Amino acid sequence: MHAPELVEVRRSRKRVRTVSAWREGERTVIAIPAQFSRAQEKEWVNRMVTRLAAQEQRRRPSDRQLADRAAELSARYLHGRAVPTSVRWSSNQGKRWGSCTPSDGTIRISDRVRGMPRWVLDYVLLHELTHLLHAGHTPAFWAALDAYPRTERARGFLEGHAYRGDGPADADTDDAADVDADTVDDAVNDATDA
Q1: Mean pLDDT to the nearest integer, 80-101
Q2: Residue 71 and residue 116: Cα distance in Å, rounded?
Q3: What was the pLDDT predicted at 2?
Q4: Is residue 147 situated within a structural domain?
Q5: Apex CA 94: angle with CA 88 and CA 99, to 5°?
Q6: pLDDT by residue (tens digit) across 43-54?
Q7: 51-60 burial, b if ≥16 CB within 10 A, otherwise e?
Q8: Do 106 and 15 sit in the same domain of this protein?
Q9: Same domain? 39 vs 124
């Protein structure tokens, strides 16, 4: 959990049904309805900081979790035929999103992919796994990769990310944690009933 001085609470009269949380640099911003009591504010800040941390953990898996995910994807989309000897994060990929060495079965995924939506990471993993089955970007390679339903969307995401200079994803591209409006309604009603 982040230190209290790194959390900023923004109250809004316009916000009546939602609570949102996102990162702005090292600071966590929590947006809440203006009518929340201090107790509700404390409760929602704790809840949203916890939710945001869990979301970030899912988006930044360890090397072991990365290898496990690669095995799941191989089983689901490549009939388990792609079996890497290792899968790990790498900080020396340059402009590449990942790399595969078929001769020794190793896959390295660029640290730049950490924090991107899971379906993008899945695509990069599948792309490299497919290289274990097909050298180069042949028609057979692309045909195998087309089993993943978000291939085109992920490629577009990566192209856009590269185009804008590899900056961090915007808060509105799944980096923000939001709470369903019905969940907040109970808290808002409690505030207005008091």
Answers
A1: 94
A2: 20
A3: 41
A4: yes
A5: 40
A6: 999 999 888 888
A7: ebeeeeeebb
A8: no
A9: no
